[in-house]
């Protein structure tokens, strides 16, 4: 990619760039409202708004049944909030990864962070430690992600090679290794309940998410989102190549490391409360890029809003499409995301470059 190509792309579709953020914001609000209202206990959207207003100490109008209040405030709203936070984090992490690796189809798990989080969770499940509290699983998952990203950069340091190719190769190797360890733990599970819990976690899900989970992740995810978005200009310069980035005054190795660490934080915290959810971090930022171009100053917030909306809707489909059967949200994102990704690969000339 040369400078003129990037500049031409950054000037593309200015009207769409202006409109995309408010459109995505409205879409997220609508998706969240429907996500809270719909389910095996249907609640009108107006009642949802009234209940939420009352829970915030505002005048909400008519009184509501205790059942509706509990369903809205304690069951569905925290689940939708978690879905929005995780979707936004995966979308932004994917956009950052694609910028760092200069590949529009790179995805958040490319350096093994998702696999590390999954292994940590599987260890907690297979050892029975989850019986000590709901906090055990997220803590183990995040620890696995953190140790994995530390291992990635440790191996890179030992190899004394700072390029993205080294990170990619290390990530591929660790993904394979961690996947093999997970397979061993799955094969040696003590009982069917334990095996079912592991499989459900690996498929990704938002079942039984509560305000405790929201409090656990909201601060690190919001801090990570703001911090990584601050590197939007540097990600734009990375698109010109490392030499051009250095000429522009960017410390390439350090900036790349910081961006990947922040992306790892977003992925690790997300995996800690949702399991491994695929395709959000690759499909959403790529789709947004095709609409508004590669300028990360718009691409990052648009990917956050798009990822949040996509995961909220995916969770809604998982809960309602096959009632009374409830699917794992990771299954829905794969069913939707895989065909969309294949379409992008076939139709987009840049996807093959």
Short recap of the structure:
The protein is mostly helical and about 350 residues long. It is about 75% helix and about 0% strand.
Fill in the keyword field for this structure:
single chain, 353 residues, mainly alpha, ABC transporter involved in vitamin B12 uptake, BtuC, 15 helices, 75% helix, globular, disordered N terminus, membrane, cell membrane
Total count of strands: 0
On the 0 to 100 scale, the average pLDDT is 87
**Principal-axes shape call:** globular
What CATH architecture do you see? Answer: Orthogonal Bundle
Rg, nearest Å:
21 Å
Distance between the termini: 10 Å
* Main pleated-sheet profile: none
- Number of separate structural domains: 1
Give the helix proportion (percent range). Answer: over 70%
Approximate strand percentage: under 5%
Order of helices and strands: HHHHHHHHHHHHHHH
- Low-confidence spans: 1-10
CATH superfamily: ABC transporter involved in vitamin B12 uptake, BtuC
| SS-based class | mainly alpha
User: Which CATH class?
Assistant: Mainly Alpha
Count of DSSP H/I helices: 15
CATH topology: ABC transporter involved in vitamin B12 uptake, BtuC
Family: Belongs to the binding-protein-dependent transport system permease family. FecCD subfamily.
Transmembrane segments: 80-97, 109-129, 135-155, 167-187, 217-238, 259-287, 325-346
Organism: Brooklawnia cerclae
Protein name: Iron complex transport system permease protein
């Amino acid at each position: 990619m040369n400078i003129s190509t990037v500049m031409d792309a950054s000037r593309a579709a200015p009207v769409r760039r202006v409109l995309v953020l408010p459109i995505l914001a409205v879409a997220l609000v609508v998706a969240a409202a429907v996500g809270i209202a719909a389910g095996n206990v249907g609640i009108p959207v107006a009642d949802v708004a009234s209940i939420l207003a009352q829970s915030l100490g505002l005048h909400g109008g008519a009184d509501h049944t205790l059942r509706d209040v509990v369903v809205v405030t304690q069951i569905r709203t925290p689940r939708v909030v978690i879905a929005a936070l995780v979707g936004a984090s995966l979308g932004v992490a994917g956009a950052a990864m694609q910028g760092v690796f200069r590949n529009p189809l790179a995805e958040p798990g490319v350096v093994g962070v998702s696999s590390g989080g999954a292994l940590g969770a599987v260890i907690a499940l297979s050892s029975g430690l989850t019986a000590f509290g709901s906090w055990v699983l997220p803590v183990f998952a995040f620890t696995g992600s953190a140790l994995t990203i530390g291992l990635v950069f440790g191996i890179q340091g030992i190899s004394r090679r700072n390029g993205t190719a080294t990170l990619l190769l290390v990530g591929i190797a660790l993904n394979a290794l961690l996947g093999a360890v997970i397979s061993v733990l799955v094969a040696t599970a003590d009982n069917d309940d334990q095996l079912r819990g592991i499989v459900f976690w690996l498929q990704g899900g938002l079942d039984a998410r509560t305000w405790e989970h929201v409090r656990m992740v909201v601060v690190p995810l919001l801090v990570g989102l703001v911090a990584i978005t601050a590197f939007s200009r540097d990600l734009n310069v990375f698109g010109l190549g490392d030499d051009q980035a250095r000429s522009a005054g960017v410390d390439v190795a350090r900036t790349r490391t910081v961006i990947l660490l922040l992306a790892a934080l977003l992925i690790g915290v997300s995996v800690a409360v949702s399991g491994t959810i695929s395709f959000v971090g690759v499909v959403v930022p790529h789709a947004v890029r095709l609409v508004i171009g590669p300028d990360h100053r718009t691409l990052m917030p648009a990917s956050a809003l798009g990822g949040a909306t996509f995961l909220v809707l995916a969770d809604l489909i998982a809960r309602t499409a096959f009632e009374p059967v409830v699917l794992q949200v990771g299954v829905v994102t794969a069913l939707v995301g895989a065909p969309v990704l294949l379409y992008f690969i076939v139709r987009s000339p840049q996807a093959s470059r």
